[in-house]
Amino acid sequence: MKKIINTSNAPAPIGPYNQAILTGNTLYTSGQIAINPATGELVLNSIKEETTQVMENLKAVLAEAEMTFENVIKSSIFISDMNTFSEINEVYGSYFNAETAPARETVEVANLPKFVNVEISVIAIK
């Protein structure tokens, strides 16, 4: 059985999907982009600020499911320019313990929703 996870502390979905689905002990999040949930505005001042907003959105979704980044077992990062990888990775890495960090892939793509620079999704287990 699946449980829908939604929180007002992360951006509302902009299409026919939910922020996350919990099935059993496994949480599957939708990709998060840098929308500030309080204002609905994109945070695009710098790639580091953009990535921080993405991670804070994921943090809010995880919290709604009573989880943290320590529960994350897999993440997927989509970026529009591989030249920004080191800055994205620096921010992303600050949310994880290096010894227990999840598996991950990072992929450069042609475009992302709303033409943002980074989108991240995670899978977490209680």
Q: How would you portray this structure in words?
A:
This is 2-iminobutanoate/2-iminopropanoate deaminase. Residues 48-75 form a coiled coil. Keywords: Coiled coil. GO terms for molecular function: deaminase activity. This protein has helices spanning 47-64, 85-93, and strands at residues 2-5, 20-23, 26-29, 72-79, 103-108, 118-125. The chain is an alpha+beta fold. The protein has a single domain, classed as RutC-like (60s Ribosomal Protein L30, Chain: A, 2-Layer Sandwich). A six-stranded mixed sheet has the order 1-2-3-6-4-5, covered by helices on one side. Strand 4 (72-79), helix 2 (85-93) and strand 5 form a beta-alpha-beta unit. Helix 1 runs parallel beside helix 2 (85-93).
Brief overview:
This protein is an alpha+beta fold and 126 residues long.
